[in-house]
Design a protein that fits this description.
The chain is of the alpha/beta class. The protein is 36% helix and 23% strand. Bound molecules: fructose -6-phosphate (F6R).
């Protein structure tokens, strides 16, 4: 979704903002823009397309200034175009705004403003903020921002400048992320930490309806009643290298390769930090666990459902898409544990699901990667994944970290519920501890996966099948492939094939079959034979020593592992397969079309 960066300080804001925008590219965007304060006015350059296009415009029409705001826009209201790009400046050229979020009552506000004779330049919801701010402006920008925020409905993270205040940059947020960075040469607002990390690792996390007033040598915080606030200054512990490609052609490949390390760190951090947290949770009081999330995080939840059911024998474990859960009026209460899974901690539907669960009295536990994010802060309990910054839009390492944390949670719950002995707990924990090394072994097969994937670029459609927990991870394999390679794909439970999908199988269809469930090996192989006999080719991923590869059957063997934790191994092959299919098609792997890293609007 949109990215915001703003700077006020004693250096030229323009290169700082352009560099910050580059660090926010991963969020997904279709246009970009920048505005700097310049002698009682603003200099603005906005451009549809990639940042390279904005840079080309800036080369023709250079800007400079000590205070500015920049934005990468992911269109929601109004097509991607120069005029719809941010920053938006009001018709009196007094106030400039960058916005991430959606203003739900913008039509009504726009009608009112137009009725008062205020002309609009764009089709965006965001422009109403700049126009409203100019309309309410009384000489005090802080008052004006507070006034505007009381009128806006929806979600927003805002950066606001006024021509009357050459050194004041104001930020406010509601339901969309915004951080404030402080450095020795100036201060920043940004949607995410990587945008400021080159200059500082000291940040404040803004909470909803908190306002930051930045000057070149100070930052002050206020609540919506204009009362001053004290906020803790946090230190970011990861460095810029974690947010750089480190010699890999794409962030996605780098992040796939980091997985053994990330698994190790997440396991260690869970054992060292979270066992005591879970000890305080009265698991026996729950009669239902609902795991809710979006996209890949939801798929992690589908895998976890199998693990929780198998180990904890819980009466009810449900996995539900957060976008459905939030509107379903689910039957949950204080005896329900709602587990929220999210890399960003800012996904709008997952936040709404969390708030819905809390309003019904459920206990909420989140598994989140981004420290200081809304879900990390608002859930009753939060377990952080130690994946570090994930830049590629398609998640890989954060997904793996979510999975392993969910396994550990299931093991601890099973012990607390008396469903497994301590001896079994130790066995399970040592199987989990062995996953990083097994992940390393899989990564050694990268060449054969790459070679095989290079033969698959021509497919229009690829199907993924599995049974039981292999079906759960097939969902993730299918999502990964379609989002970065633009090849249509579907995942099916093997047993469902004959209930519909097999009609799509024809000469040279590719079916990816995942097989780690020993007792179901015969069944999945019989599915494979059924599709092969109709002309399909099969890529078999799993621990299947009995499989006999031939021109129709290609096998990628996984190291032996417990069936319950095998998704952590299958997924690495699935990620590499998708990556190399997309790479062979020459696609923009880290920033697939139309997708955003953090879906902060509905
Ligand atoms: C897919 C992907 C998305 C996210 C989803 C949820 O590769 O990355 O499907 O998993 O948008 O995002 P988070 O985990 O940030 O809530």
């Amino acid at each position: 979704m949109c990215g915001i960066i703003g700077y006020v300080g004693n250096k030229d804001a323009v290169p700082i903002i352009v560099d910050g925008l580059k660090k926010l590219e991963y969020r997904g965007y279709d246009s970009a823009g920048i505005a700097v304060y310049k002698q009682n006015s603003f200099d603005v350059v906005k451009q549809k397309g990639r940042l390279a296009a904005l840079e080309a415009r800036l080369a023709e029409r250079p800007l400079s200034g000590r205070m500015g705001i920049g934005h990468t826009r992911w269109a929601t209201h109004g097509e991607p175009s120069d005029v719809n790009s941010h920053p938006h400046v009001g018709s009196k050229n007094k106030i400039a705004v960058v916005h991430n979020g959606i203003i739900e009552n913008y039509k009504h506000l726009k009608e009112r403003l137009e009725h008062w004779g205020i002309p609009f330049a764009s089709q965006t919801d965001s422009e109403v903020i700049a126009q409203l701010a100019e309309h309410y402006y009384n000489g005090d920008l802080l008052d004006t921002v507070i006034h505007v925020s009381t009128v806006l409905e929806g979600s927003y993270a805002l950066g606001v400048m006024c021509v009357d205040d050459p050194d004041i940059l104001i930020a406010i947020k509601k339901d969309n992320p915004l951080i404030i960075g402080v450095s020795d040469h100036g201060n920043f607002i940004a949607s995410d930490v990587p945008a400021v990390l080159k200059h500082t690792n000291k940040v404040y996390y803004l909470n909803d309806k908190e306002i930051a007033v930045l000057r070149n040598n100070s930052v002050e915080f206020f609540n919506i009643d204009k009362e001053p606030l004290e906020k803790p200054l946090e230190t970011i512990t990861w460095n810029l290298d974690s947010a750089e490609k480190g010699g890999y052609p794409h962030f996605m490949l780098k992040e796939i390769m980091e997985q053994p390390k990330i698994l190790r760190e997440t396991i260690n951090s869970a054992v060292n930090n979270y066992k005591s947290v879970i000890d305080t949770l009265d698991v026996a009081k729950f009669n239902k666990i609902v795991i809710t999330a979006c996209g890949s995080a939801y798929n992690a939840g589908v895998v976890a459902k199998y693990v929780f059911e198998r180990l904890c024998r819980f009466p009810s474990v449900e996995t539900e898409l957060a976008s459905e859960f939030r509107y379903r009026d689910a039957v949950i209460n204080e005896k329900t544990l709602v587990v929220l899974v999210s890399q960003s901690g800012e996904t709008a539907d997952t936040i709404a699901a969390m708030r819905e669960a809390k309003s019904k009295g459920a206990v909420t536990l989140s598994i989140v990667n981004v420290v200081g994010s809304t879900i990390a802060k608002e859930a009753d309990f939060c377990l952080l994944t130690a994946a570090g910054p994930e830049i590629a839009v398609a998640t890989t390492k954060a997904f793996s970290a979510q999975l392993v944390l969910l396994y550990i949670l299931a093991v601890w719950f099973a012990v607390k519920l008396g469903k497994i002995t301590q001896k079994v707990e130790q066995e399970l924990m040592s199987q989990i501890a062995a996953l990083p090394e097994k992940a390393e072994d899989i990564l050694k097969q990268i060449d054969s996966i790459q070679k095989y994937a290079s033969t698959c670029v021509g497919y229009k459609s690829i199907f993924f099948i599995g049974r039981n927990i292999d079906y759960a991870i097939a969902l993730e394999g299918s999502l990964k492939l379609k989002e970065i390679s633009y090849i249509h794909s579907e995942a099916y439970a093997g047993g469902e094939l004959k209930h519909g999908t097999i009609s799509l199988v024809e000469e040279d269809t590719l079916v990816v079959a995942i097989s780690n469930c020993a007792t179901l090996y015969g069944k999945i192989m019989s599915n494979a034979e059924q599709v092969i006999s109709r002309g399909a080719k099969v890529l078999l991923i799993g621990n299947c020593p009995a499989a006999k590869p031939d021109d129709k059957l290609f096998c990628i063997a996984l190291p032996e592992s417990s069936e319950l934790f095998s998704p952590s191994l299958s997924v690495i092959v699935l990620q590499l397969f998708s990556y190399y299919v997309a790479a062979n098609k020459g696609l923009d792997i880290d920033k697939p079309r139309n997708l955003a890293k953090s879906v902060t609007v509905e």
